[in-house]
Write a structure and sequence with these properties.
- The structure is a single chain.
- The protein contains 13 helices and 7 strands.
- It has 359 residues and is an alpha/beta fold.
- The strands form 2 sheets. The protein has a 5-stranded parallel beta sheet. It has a two-stranded antiparallel sheet with strand order 6-7.
- A hairpin with a 2-residue loop joins strand 6 and strand 7.
- Helix 8 runs parallel beside helix 13 and helix 9 packs antiparallel against helix 11.
């Protein structure tokens, strides 16, 4: 600058200084604008990141809500069918379902067939399947009635109902049914039964070769599990026995036995709390748990039992009962433990690990 002052006239020196000052001002102004733009950009990026986080949270919340809604919807879409076998403590168990339906928010529907016929006509099968699967106002639902097993897949149904049942020692069941028809029970003591007035004991019936205590009357639990095939109701059919076993294992979630009904109730409560929460305590303390008892019943003699056990029909029905009992005890052994005379459910003993991809 010193050299310029010497060489340049004063006016030019002044102009040069002004130009320099203007240039510096312009540069500072541009730098300030760049700083402001950078600040705006940083704030915009920050707002965008906040929106992304909020959006992710919202999406996660929606997914959680949708997942919860789907789970709730799935639970509300459940249908249980209890195709109860007569004289197996079915009324005692059904009363538990009636007592819990209001508290646990589900519907109980009794399937009442004409003359207690366990086999439905084809058109009634279609109607029943349609009701069970499409009657949304009644879901979740617990259906019960003296009807034989019905295979829903034959009708194109994708989501099948959950089948459960209880069976009993075949001779004990027949004896109970024999006296029930004559003396009724304490559930509806005023109702007149079909054989009321017949004072003949079960032993006398067996000794006389009567039809009400004939081995053919034992043939009931097998066809109830076998289903709506004609062969199921052919007394003594080996095919029916095998089909009943197959259905018990593959189509029923749980089949209990009358002699161990409390264990059955406890396991159902653990597996299906949506329906059976509180069932075990109700069974132990409720007034209706053991409500229905045959008013008068005499245990059969060893001679009567031995005579029935000579029949191949008893052998088949007993084989099915033993098969069901073994299966139930297998399931129970992996579900409960006994300590100090009390049964306890086992805690969850599986977990997940090595979950990929990692987020």
């Amino acid at each position: 600058m010193g050299l310029l002052r010497v060489m340049m006239p004063p006016k030019l020196q002044l102009l040069a200084l002004l130009a320099f000052a203007v240039a510096m001002f312009f540069l500072e102004n541009q730098i300030q604008k760049l700083e402001e733009s950078r600040g705006k950009l940083e704030r915009a990026i920050a707002r965008h990141e906040v929106r992304e986080i909020e959006q992710r949270h919202t999406q996660d919340g929606l997914r959680e809500r949708d997942s919860a809604a789907a789970l709730s919807s799935s639970e509300d879409d459940v249908v249980i069918i209890y195709n109860r076998v007569p004289k197996t403590a079915s009324t005692s168990f059904t009363n538990i379902a009636y007592d819990l339906c209001g508290k646990n928010h589900y519907h109980v529907l009794h399937i009442n067939t004409t003359k207690n016929n366990p086999v439905m006509s084809l058109q009634d099968q279609v109607r029943f399947v349609k009701n069970v699967t499409e009657w949304r106002e009644m879901k979740p639902a617990f259906y019960h009635g003296h009807v034989s097993f019905l295979d829903f897949t034959k009708f194109g149904v994708k989501k099948k109902p959950i089948y459960i049942n209880v069976i009993r020692d075949p001779i004990e069941r027949l004896v109970s049914y024999y006296y029930f028809l004559r003396f009724g029970d304490d559930y509806r003591p005023g109702l007149r039964r079909r054989k009321q007035g017949d004072k003949k004991t079960f032993d006398e019936c067996v000794s006389a070769g009567g039809s009400d205590c004939a081995p053919e009357k034992l043939w009931l639990q097998i066809p109830f599990f076998c289903g709506h095939y004609s062969e199921c109701w052919n007394v003594g059919s080996q095919w029916a026995l095998e089909q009943a076993k197959y259905n018990l294992v593959n189509e029923y979630m749980l089949v209990g036995v009358t002699e161990e009904l409390e264990d059955f109730v406890m396991m159902l409560e653990a597996a299906l709390p949506r329906f059976f929460k509180g069932a075990t305590e109700l069974y132990k303390t409720g007034k209706k748990s053991h409500l229905r008892k045959t008013s008068e019943k005499k245990p059969p003699t060893k001679e009567s039992i031995a005579k029935l056990q000579q029949s191949p029909i008893w052998k088949m029905e007993n084989e099915f009962y033993e098969f069901a009992l073994e299966q139930f005890q297998f399931v129970r052994a992996h579900a409960v433990r006994e300590k100090d005379g009390e049964l306890y459910l086992l805690a969850q003993n599986f977990f997940y690990e090595k979950i990929y991809p990692k987020n």
